Amino acid sequence: MIIVGELINSSRKAISEAIKSQDVQAIQQVAKDQRDAGANYIDINAGTFVGQESEYVNWMVQKVQEVVDGPCCIDSPDPRAIENALAVHKGTAMINSISLEKERFDALMPIVASHECQVIALCMSDEGMPETAEDRFAIAQDLVNRLVQKGVKVENIYVDPLVQPVSTNDSFGREFLKAIGMIMTQIPGVHTICGLSNISYGLPKRVLLNRTFMSMAIAQGLDGAIVNPLDRKMMAVIAASEALMGRDEFCMNYLNVYRAKGLED
Ligand code: THG
To answer: Against a cut of 0.85, is the pTM above it?
Structure first.
C-alpha cells in the first residue's frame, strides 16, 4: 500500500499558520513525523493561498526535502504550480492531480508526459463529479488511455475515483467501492488511490467510518491512500486488511508492524 501523508495541507490551521509565519521547523517536523510513521510520499498543499500558492508549494517542497529523504505529492489544481514544483523537487514526484476537465488536462498533459513522475488521475470531467461506478470507470478508462498514448507507464498512474459523503446519498459508498473493483480488475497494472475522509462528512464518529471504509476499499483492491499516517488505528487497519487480503506474503509486514508496537486495536 502506497501511503501519502496528508497533513501538510493549508486547510489545516497549524499548517496555514506555519506558512504565514514561514516556520520552517514546524513544516519539517510534520514531514518527518509522517515519514517515520510510514508515509511513502509527503502531500504538499497550499491551496488556500490564492495567488501565492505556487510560491508556498515550492518553499514547502524544498524545506521538506531538506529533512526527508523521499518524494512529495504535489497537490494542486493549478498546472503551473505543479510545473514550478517539479523544477525544484528532487527524485520522482507524485502529481496530484490530472483530470478529464479539458483546461486542466490540456495544460498538465505535456508536463506529465515530459517528466518522470507518478500521477494521480481524478475521475472528474467537465460534466462534473460522476456518481455511479460505471461513470467513474468510463472516465478512468479514458484518462488512462490518453496518458498511456502519451507514453506514461500504466504502473505510474493512480486513479482516484473520488469519495463522496454517504450522508448525502446512501449509494455513494457502494458506487465508489464498485469503481475500485472495476478499475483494478479491468485496467491491468493501474493503481487506485483516494482520500477517505469525505465518506464520513456530516456524520458522528468519523474515524470509525473512515477506518471501516478503508478496509472495504482494500478488499476491492485499493493500493494507495491519502491519509493521516499518525492515526495509528488507521495504519493498523491498513496492515490488517492487507494481510487478510493476501497482499502481505507470510503476513511479514503485519508481524513487523506488530513487533514495532504499531498494531493498535
Ligand atoms: N484526493 C486527492 N487529493 C486530495 C484529496 C482526495 N487532497 C486533499 C484531500 N483530499 C486529502 N487531504 C486532507 C488533508 C487534511 C485533512 C483531510 C484531507 C484534514 N481534515 C480535518 C478533518 O477532516 O477533520 C479538518 C481540517 C483541520 O484539521 O482543521 O485534516 O480525496 N487526489
So the answer is: yes
- Between the CA of 187 and the centroid of ligand 1 the distance, in Å, is 27
> Which residues, judged by CB distance below 6 Å to any ligand atom, belong to the binding site of ligand 1?
6, 9, 11-13, 45, 75, 96-97, 120, 160, 163, 194-195, 197, 226
Q: What is the pLDDT of residue 67?
A: 98
Q: Are 193 and 2 in contact (CB under 8 A)?
A: yes
Task: Name the band, by pLDDT with cuts 50, 70 and 90, for residue 88.
Answer: very high
The C-alpha cell that represents 58 in the structure block: 515550492
Spans of all domains in the chain:
1-77, 92-230
pLDDT band at 200 (very low <50, low <70, confident <90, very high): very high
**Contact criterion met (CB below 8 Å) for 57 and 85:** yes
pLDDT in tens, 216-263: 999 999 999 999 999 999 999 999 999 999 999 999 999 999 999 999
CA distance 148 to 160: 17
User: Which parts of the chain are beta strand (E)?
Assistant: 2-5, 41-44, 72-75, 94-99, 118-122, 157-160, 191-192, 224-227
Q: Topology of 92-230 in CATH?
A: TIM Barrel (3.20.20)
Measured CA to CA, the distance from residue 135 to residue 121 in angstroms comes to 14
Nine-digit cell at 124?
472528474
**Best substitution site from 3, 7, 8, 11 to test ligand 1's pocket, by max atoms within 8 Å of Cβ?**
11
Nearest CA owner, ligand 1 atom 9? 195
In tens, the pLDDT along 116-170 reads 999 999 999 999 999 999 999 999 999 999 999 999 999 999 999 999 999 999 9
118 φ/ψ angles, rounded to the nearest 5 degrees = -95, 150
